[in-house]
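ok here's SalK:
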Amino acid sequence: MTNTLPPRAGRRCHNALNPLHSSLYFSPDLDRELSALGFEDQSAMRLAARSAPLGAVGAGTVAATFYNYNHELLARHLPAVWETASPAEVLAARLRAVDTTLRRLLGEDAVASPEMAEAAELALRAAEACTRHARPLYSANADLPVPEEPHLAYWHATTLLREHRGDGHLAALLSAGLDPVEALASHTATGKGMAPRWVLGTRGWRRTDWEGAVARLRDRGLIGAGGELTEAGAALRAELEEHTDRLDSAPYEHLGAAGVERLTELGRGFLFAAAAAGAFPEDLVGKG
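and the structure:
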């Protein structure tokens, strides 16, 4: 389908789908499944769960594809995590955790609803237009089979759409000249990114790394003395998202305006229900 989409319609759809996908990484169900495989460290669990589609990779591959993680953190866990469990075992555990998490957050009625089946069909249709070249995380996940149950198929499709956009976003970050910590700090300065304590706790950076990135952004005139984005900083972040939109337009153009609007509506409904059920930490987002 080629009917013209409203401005930023693809981004709005992504913003409705991506957080529910991401809820897995805050889920006690994922911890439980991976602990049963022998994992003890939560960082190792998160790294294994997201990188498993790539195979038994090491720290270098994950540093390149995740972009904003400290290589020192990655090297503490990779490739050693694959001695605890194989990528195939982690992927199976991940899907079991998705099943339990979505049933817990959304309820059995929503999981079995016609709306869930419709959302899965729309998201999978959008993903038909995703492209593999220069998109390692998308391409690796695209090699995985589509689960039969609609709620699992929906999560799988949101994974494809998330990683497709994410892979493109890395190209935009490189083009903008933002290193991993600068990318994180400038996003946090918008008020929409993770709070610094969450960034430092999950990405493996030190407070001095964060302060150094903020200082470099200030020297470039992108962040003000109070930590807020300057006019130039806000313009850069806006162009980053527009650049990403251009690189990520194909799935939503393929789905068409009506399909994107409906998928966004359905995705928001599931997301709001999950958030109300406690899917995310209360202090996850913000500048504090």
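+1. The first helix runs from residue 9 to 22.
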